[in-house]
Design goal:
Keywords: Signal
Helix content: 55-70%
Mean pLDDT: 79
InterPro entries: DUF3718
Radius of gyration: 19 Å
Protein name: DUF3718 domain-containing protein
Shape: globular
Signal peptide: 1-24
Pfam families: DUF3718
Number of helices: 9
Structural class: mainly alpha
Number of strands: 0
Length: 131
């Protein structure tokens, strides 16, 4: 009986240690994603998203809300940086339902863009077509 308890505790401790390390690794893997979006490097962004998906089994919607680029989401950062290629890729990879969901400040991407005078952005056209 004691052996089973010790084994269970060891397995639990190991899994907690591994999940903490995995979260740190994901953060490290996503560290420069804001720079990639601002630079409008669609190829590098696609590689980064594929690497995170294959290594950590996470899709864009799984980590999108946890990333902030100077207080803005990735799509908002793409709009502000006029990064059309990267922004278009992000919009196309996100589920439609997530695109119309309010972000951390309580505003949807469309409401935020309208408020900031970014209605003419090519990314807004793609976003409106998706929703």
């Amino acid at each position: 009986m004691l052996k089973i308890v010790k084994t269970s505790v060891a397995i639990a401790a190991t899994s907690l240690f591994m999940s903490g390390a995995a979260q740190a690794d994901v953060a490290e893997a996503l560290q420069n994603i804001c720079t990639i979006v601002k630079a409008d490097d669609k190829g590098e962004l696609r590689k980064k998203m594929k690497r995170v998906q294959s290594d950590y089994r996470l899709k864009l919607q799984d980590y999108y809300s946890g990333i902030s680029c100077g207080g803005n989401s990735l799509i908002r950062t793409a709009m502000l940086s006029d990064a059309v290629e990267a922004g278009t890729l992000l919009v196309k990879k996100m589920p439609k339902s997530d695109l119309s969901t309010p972000e951390q400040d309580g505003k949807t991407v469309i409401a935020w863009a309208t408020e900031n005078g970014l209605n003419a952005s090519p990314i807004m056209n793609v976003l409106n077509d998706r929703i």
